[in-house]
Design a protein that fits this description.
There is one protein chain. The protein has 377 residues and is an alpha+beta fold. The chain has three domains: 124 residues, Beta-Lactamase; 79 residues; 150 residues, Heat Shock Protein 90 (2-Layer Sandwich), CATH 3.30.565.10. 43% of the residues lie in helices and 22% in strands. The protein contains nine helices and twelve strands. Strands 2-1-5-4-3 form a five-stranded antiparallel beta sheet, with helices on both faces. A five-stranded mixed beta sheet has the order 7-9-10-12-11. The protein has a two-stranded antiparallel sheet with strand order 6-8. A hairpin with a 6-residue loop joins strand 11 and strand 12.
Length: 377
Amino acid sequence: MRCVVATGSDVTDARANERRLRESERRFRELAENVNDLVAEVTRDGVFTYVNPRFEAVLGFPAEHFLGHSIYGYVHAGDHDELRAAMAELEQPGVSRQTTLRMPRREGSLCTLESVARAFTAPDGQLRLAVISRDISERVAAEAELRRADRLVTLGTFAAGVAHEINNPVAAILLASEVALERARSERVPSHTQRALERIGEYARRCGAIVRSMLDFAAQGRRERRLHDVDELLQGAAALVHGYARERCASLRIDCAPHLPRVRANGVEIEQVFVNLLRNALESRRSSVSIEVEARRVAEFVRVRVRDDGEGIPEDARARVFEPFFSTKSASGGTGLGLAIALRIVADHGGELRLEDRPEGGTCFAVDLPSAESGPG
């Protein structure tokens, strides 16, 4: 070999660019994988090409569960129109769109995500979407609770006005019934007529007690509370719906465990809670519904369950049954106030009212009231 010819080129800038690119990619990955928001890259057709670990932390599914799959398969069906509208606007690089969508968690509940998507051109020349989402489920729930509280405040004001309007005619009915009863006794009117007049007076006094309870409820004052047997309250509620149950050919069975502790409560209010639950059960089917009421001691509470074998509550309505003015019976005159007021009454007594699952069908509401033996109440 007589000579060697060597050629070379300066790659300093190219290697510097590669280092900068690798550093940029490292910073992006560290940032994307350590933020509290959900970060994703999506194709123009809506297919996931990247998701950060926050997806698994919030939704419960690992990243592999999303990659290569369409976003439409994860967004709640009720939000697909909103998603399609957002995707239609993201047709040019640099365009941004904010939206709120719901996605299911692994355990079944829905997660509300506030998302911002921006269109950009990827290195391969294809249009992609960078999506950053934040879990706002707690905020949405808090806002819903504030709206519910506001409606209950409005309801309280309205109830006070109605109560004042009802008071006078109720007092007049009571007075008239007492005068008529006194005359019937002195004139030896038949006993069945006297009993009818006595019932009029009894129900008028009951209406007066309910009106006073409504006024106290609206004013948020402390109502008079005494020791009550839950069995007696349930029997009283059953007597009030007896005629309605007979009209609907319904059967009602009350099963109270022996020696139940008493509860410290406003009897009228708690009886109204039971009346509301029984009426709802009676209306769970057009006719011939069977209702079982069970009262048991559970730890420091007396638990009352009201079960029926009716048509049940639709799945999409279960989360809203205690919301004021929400009703599945609007067509038949339902106001959507009964359960909201019942929930407030039970909570005011230190208890809990909830809708329980009933795999065999129908509906089951449970009321937990603190036992008078567990504290002063």
